[in-house]
Amino acid sequence: MSEITLGIIGGGQLGSMLAIAAKKLNVKTVIFCDDTDAPAQNFCNQFVTGSYDNKEKISEFINQVDLVTYEFENIPFETLSEINKFKPVLPKPSVNRLIQHRLAEKDFVNKLNIRTTRYVSIEKKSDIDALEDFLPGILKTTTLGYDGKGQYPIKSSNEINSLNIDFSKGYILEKHVKLKKEISIIITRFSNNKYEIYEPIENTHEDQILKYSKIPAEINEKIFNQSRDWAMLIAEELKYVGTMCVEFFIDRNDNLYVNEIAPRVHNSGHLTINAFNVSQFENHIRAVCGLEQIPLNKISNAKMMNLLGNQITHYRNTQKFNDNEFFFDYLKKDIKEKRKMGHITTLV
Ligand code: ADP
Ligand code: MG
Question: Whose alpha carbon is nearest atom 16 of ligand 1?
Fold first, then answer.
């Protein structure tokens, strides 16, 4: 029986699902979150709340744990590297710093000779004037973006004036890719060349927010292999420990691009809870806590639907689900439009 107490920074649904997986492995969890209503407090052993730069609260947190991981990437680097002086942080703080910055992340991926969308750094409005070949494009904040937040689709450079963009922040301008499909690879790296890798998952977004995921992805063999190879190369190069996700675009000519990397468990991997012998969450706990690596085994094909905003209500009122349906309610206090409130996975 393990005697490990794992600290998790972030208390959203990913934190909840990590805590549930940890419990199964007899790993205790302490969650640290800046939101007093964080849903993951329903699933962990201890809950500490405070802002991500509150030194006192952070030391209260680290005194209770053996090691620390995180469920979202937008944590100040200073916080992670400070914690790392006392307790190991996995994945390493330097990995998080690289990936939380879109420009650094894309430069890193390109250095590995992996295709990304064309992109350019934008520091001021006039930078966009001479960049017609990046248009139509999407202007994205270099940091703190998620679920399409901080993104502005731009067709021509004069549109910028009407958009009221705060150029005190850094941006990248990315060429718009004519998408045929989006897929993701979820991979758990344990140590040098030791991985568990899930098959590609096909994802459908609505308003830049993930709506549906399914396996198997309908893709050709070349893309199947290339996406796995690229995810492995990225994980190895980062000396990553834990579960991470690589999001990909496939264009209309079947070219594969890395869109972005998430240094954490990922929404598109929720179906792994029911469709595999070991979920992405359990694999993350196993890897960071140094527990046994178990070969992945697929139980079933599956599809997952995110329940956003009010869509949760119908499912909360459903008395009985079919045997192949698995409903998860994130137990968030307030229903907000487009907020991820829960999901339903169907084995098919
Ligand atoms: P986030 O951090 O919000 O997930 P992403 O860069 O992954 O940001 O963008 C969210 C979604 O927006 C993508 O999954 C895709 O559907 C769409 N998108 C983003 N960038 C592009 C692009 N360059 N070309 C086409 N679609 C894009
Ligand atoms: Mg994304």
Answer: 208
Which atom of ligand 1 is least distant from the CA of 260?
Answer: 7
Residue 287 identity = A
Task: Quote the tokens at residue 27.
Answer: 């790993």
DSSP secondary-structure letter at 321? -
| Neighbour count for residue 298 (Cβ, 10 Å) | 14
pLDDT digits (tens, 9 = 90+) for 253-270: 999 999 999 999 999 999
**Segment 292-334, tens digit of pLDDT:** 999 999 999 999 999 999 999 999 999 899 999 999 999 999 9
DSSP 117-129: --EEEE-SGGGGT
Ligand 1 atom showing the smallest separation from residue 178 Cα: 25
The Cα-based distances of 16 to 20, 30, 64, 70 in angstroms read 6, 11, 18, 12
Do the beta carbons of residue 25 and residue 79 sit within 8 Å?
Answer: no
Instruction: Name which of 165-174, 232-241, 245-254, 283-292 the model is least confident about.
Output: 165-174
In whole angstroms, what is the distance from residue 76 CA to residue 73 CA?
A: 9
Residue type, 124: K
DSSP string, 216-237: S----HHHHHHHHHHHHHHHHH
Tell me the β-bridge partners of 325: 346
> Does residue 293 sit in helix, strand or coil?
coil
- From the number of C-beta atoms within 10 Å of its C-beta (0-12, 13-18, 19+), residue 142 rates as buried
CA distance 321 to 75: 37
Nearest protein Cα to ligand 1, atom 22? 176
Helix (H) or strand (E) holding 188: strand 179-191
d(CA 41, CA 7): 12
